[in-house]
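In response to reviewer comment 3 from the previous cycle, which asked for concrete evidence that the modeling workflow produces usable outputs, we include below a single protein chain processed end to end. The sequence was submitted unchanged, and the resulting structure tokens are shown without manual editing.
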Amino acid sequence: MDVVVSLAGRGHAGPITMLSRSGTLPHVWQRPSGRRPVHVTAERVAAAHREHGTVPLDRLIGLLRAELAEAGEDFDAFAAELLAAGTDDPVQRLRRQLRNTGDTRIGRRVLQQTAHTVGPYAWRLLPEPGRARLRRHFRLATSVASPMVPVNAARLLRLLDAGRLTLARDVRAVEATDGGFAVTFGDSTIQVDAVINAINPPPQAVPRAAGELVTSLVAEGLAALHPAGGVVPADPRVQVAGDLAGGGPFITSGIPGVAAQSARAADAMLTLAATKVAGGPLLCAERRAPDGDLGHAGGDPRPIRRRPAPP
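The workflow returned the following structure tokens.
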């Protein structure tokens, strides 16, 4: 979506085709209501964990059902509306959601918020069958958790209505030809001048710029690569926050989620520094960017420096 809006904003006057497997557009961001979830919370998830030893997906669904019921809304109707995204006409759905950015119903707002704040915690307690069930709805889940802003949605709709933008699903092949590319989707093939790859990396993929850092941590036994992607600390002096954290959900981290993880990491490091675990030094994995910021993905690839814990 951002690429299309940018192309149009930079004066591109030719036709644009958005290709994907599903042909589904992200949901449109709704205006915040100020309501805080009272059932879908970390405290309720923790209570379910204490009761069951895990957090079954049906228990999480029950929390969302209770959240909607308290607001006078029907969970089954909400679920049916979400699942219809795979069969609805995407343009009409976009038009309808743009009209309803002020809709007072809370369902999508609760999912959008808690996917980032409660989701990473709940995911680690979720049995594998529940994870597999959610993965089957990967596109829908990311569409709800990371909706597009209304201003971009309005621009897309104008391009669609003007015939300058086409949505194409079931993309099958992209092949270079003389002076362009042949793109096959469904039973159709079109010729285009340029192809822009806007596919997101797989969840928990290690960014190329962080490759040397991760390799160094793994080689020194300070971290391990998770089978599903990402990095898992193997030493209490190493903390990982954000999408690089192994074993996390497939939803791209939002600012609230990263902030919560970072706060927990800071608390852990302060506790470690205060207790001086095993009398060892506090390890700081530091990468300094040209502007002096720490933790920049494209920063200095020098070996990790060890420095003593503060007194």
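Confidence is low (pLDDT under 50) at residues 284-311. We consider this sufficient to address the reviewer's concern, and the full set will be provided in the supplementary archive.
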